[in-house]
Sequence to fold (97 residues):
Amino acid sequence: MLVEMRSQRDGARALEKEAAEAKLALETLSASVPETEARLNGRIKQLEAELGDARFDLEDERGRGLFLLAEMVDHLGVTTSPDGKGLSLEATMDSNA
Fold:
């Protein structure tokens, strides 16, 4: 009976330790969420500032062709052209289409 009580006590201590570790992990995670949110919001604002007026507006005729082209192909890659003054497009179709 002494052995059984000791193992129950050890089991209870192990559960208490695991619960304390889980609580600490949760508190650490909860504390990091606002920092992460603030960092991501800052990055979003920075990217929006860099993007400026270059955002695509589906209602605007300018740039609408990219969306139409994307609907007609399987993959559409858009990168800055080598001279930095425009865009380079790469459109591909899957071979089994």
Summary: The beta strands are 75-80, 87-92. The longest helix spans residues 2-51. The radius of gyration is 28 Å.
